[in-house]
Amino acid sequence: MKLSTFLSILNDNVPFDSAESWDNVGLLVGDRTSDISGIMTALDCTAEVVDEAIEKGCNTIVAHHPLIFKGMRAITADEGYGNIIYKLIQNNMNLIAMHTNLDVHPQGVNAMLADCLGLESCRILMPETTDYYKVQVYIPEADADAFKLRLSEQGLATEGNYEHAFFNTRGKGQFKPVGDAQPHIGEVGTIETVDEVKIEFMIDGTQRKLAEQLIQQYHPYETPVYDFIPLQKDIQRGLGMIGQLPQSMTVAQFVAHVKTQLDMPSVRFIGNPHAQIETVALIGGSGIGYEMTAMKQGADIFLTGDIKHHDALDAKIAGMNLLDINHYSEHVMKEGLVKLLNQWISQQFDGQIVASTTHTDPYQYM
Ligand SMILES: [Zn+2]
């Protein structure tokens, strides 16, 4: 399989543009025209990870954390992060980053963590919303079909795999043209009653200007009457997960469970050690700042990494239970992404898809 094909399959499943604006995802190093020999997933692309990929015959690494993120001043064989890029290029390797786009995916890093902890009835902690409009236009019955065709041709009024999705209600329109009016129907100074249709359809937030322009252009009336009703809907992606343990546990039991499942030698707890835990919210990586959202949704405990002293103190004073599971707990994405890739590309790709076994946690737990 060509790298370009792989990238477009990734983009179909975990759109790169769903990443945060500050992020750096997609192809970071490589050649889109190259053939993929094998794929290795990794949390961080370190020099050891590149060596492992070469050894395993995988010329393509899909890493969660973007290697190219902060300013990089040199790409040389002997220095820092530049050395890793140098090694990738010298060995004709490809490096793809799937970072915050994988975080917000419904089967992404947070779902993988929830799955690893055995949470049930999971839902996204903070579902993203998208803006759309319901449009209503009033038009003479005789002109309605041609008008709808014009809108439909321009990509308006689609619902999933359905185009030309309109709802029509018949009614009577009334108006009295006055002053310098040049009416399509009727005469100045006379109340006119016309058989009209109210056409209703949906557009997404980006189509509003186009819709307004097309209505002005193709509606027969001098002054068309229409409404844009702004609406929002949840989309199936967003940060964090919240779910239930199969049975309630003490903090001590829960902590032991988390350490075993995430293969973490130590974690840090803030809160009431006598609490019973049943509803668990989590955000992989650095999710501090969302603990209140989690508590408001009924979480007995919030799990994330990188919790600092003052965040911890704030939470303790507010009576919350937090568990710092370390940023490295995101390593579950290595196996999780292998499973997803197998679902997405097994039809087109018969090479190996493996998870890196290199340990990239910079901390040693003493
Ligand atoms: Zn991370």
TrEMBL record:
<keyword id="KW-0479">Metal-binding</keyword>
<dbReference type="InterPro" id="IPR017221">
    <property type="entry name" value="DUF34/NIF3_bac"/>
</dbReference>
<dbReference type="GO" id="GO:0005737">
    <property type="term" value="C:cytoplasm"/>
</dbReference>
<dbReference type="GO" id="GO:0046872">
    <property type="term" value="F:metal ion binding"/>
</dbReference>
<dbReference type="InterPro" id="IPR002678">
    <property type="entry name" value="DUF34/NIF3"/>
</dbReference>
<feature type="binding site">
    <location>
        <position position="330"/>
    </location>
    <ligand>
        <name>a divalent metal cation 1</name>
    </ligand>
</feature>
<dbReference type="InterPro" id="IPR015867">
    <property type="entry name" value="N-reg_PII/ATP_PRibTrfase_C"/>
</dbReference>
<feature type="binding site">
    <location>
        <position position="327"/>
    </location>
    <ligand>
        <name>a divalent metal cation 1</name>
    </ligand>
</feature>
<comment type="similarity">
    <text>Belongs to the GTP cyclohydrolase I type 2/NIF3 family.</text>
</comment>
<protein>
    <recommendedName>
        <fullName>GTP cyclohydrolase 1 type 2 homolog</fullName>
    </recommendedName>
</protein>
<feature type="binding site">
    <location>
        <position position="65"/>
    </location>
    <ligand>
        <name>a divalent metal cation 1</name>
    </ligand>
</feature>
<dbReference type="Pfam" id="PF01784">
    <property type="entry name" value="DUF34_NIF3"/>
</dbReference>
<feature type="binding site">
    <location>
        <position position="103"/>
    </location>
    <ligand>
        <name>a divalent metal cation 1</name>
    </ligand>
</feature>
<dbReference type="InterPro" id="IPR036069">
    <property type="entry name" value="DUF34/NIF3_sf"/>
</dbReference>
<feature type="binding site">
    <location>
        <position position="64"/>
    </location>
    <ligand>
        <name>a divalent metal cation 2</name>
    </ligand>
</feature>
